[in-house]
Amino acid sequence: MALILKQSTAIDVLIGPFVDDTDGKTAETSLTIEDSDVRLSKEGQNMVPKNDDTNCAHDEIGYYNCELDATDTNTVGPLVLAVHESG
Questions:
Q1: Rounded CA gap, 77 and 2, in Å?
Q2: Contact between 65 and 45 (Cβ < 8 Å)
Q3: CA angle at residue 81 from 75 to 86, to 5 degrees?
Q4: How far apart (Å, rounded) are the C-alpha atoms in residues 59 and 17?
Q5: How far apart are CA 17 and CA 10, in angstroms?
Q6: Would you place residue 3 in the very low, low, confident or very high pLDDT band (cuts 50, 70, 90)?
Q7: Which DSSP symbol is given to 75?
Q8: Mean pLDDT over residues 27-46, rounded?
Q9: Is the pLDDT of residue 77 over 70?
Q10: How much is the mean pLDDT over the chain?
Q11: Which of 4-8, 34-38, 59-63 has the lowest mean pLDDT?
Q12: How far apart (Å, rounded) are the C-alpha atoms in residues 60 and 65?
């Protein structure tokens, strides 16, 4: 899914769904997704940890609220967000 973000503006994005490794369908509702687990690529460059130091919080059914700050969104062009969390 593509979002259009305003450059250099803080935003909360919903990421997921995160599902169980074993059955591939059960929603993971108690993961600890730390700020350093969220990786960003701006305009096709190398992935780096997001700048905002807030951990992601579970919303519902395996979706998590992920906060990005103005530094995370300061580059014009594609922004790719990736998370790999075990569980």
A1: 12
A2: no
A3: 155
A4: 10
A5: 22
A6: confident
A7: S
A8: 96
A9: yes
A10: 94
A11: 4-8
A12: 9
> Token pair of 59, please?
């919303």
In this structure, the number of other CB atoms found within 10 A of the CB of residue 8 comes to 13
- As given in the structure block, the two tokens for residue 17 are 């769904």
Omega cis (within 30) before 17? yes
DSSP string, 5-52: --TT--EEEEE---B-TTTS-SB--S--B-GGGEEEEETT---EE-S-
Q: Give the residue from 2, 3, 84, 6 showing the smallest Cα distance to 39.
A: 84
Distance of alpha carbon 45 from the chain centroid: 17
Say which amino acid occupies 25.
K
Token pair for 77: 């062009």
Tokens 């305003």 belong to which residue?
6
71, 25 contact by CB (below 8 A): no
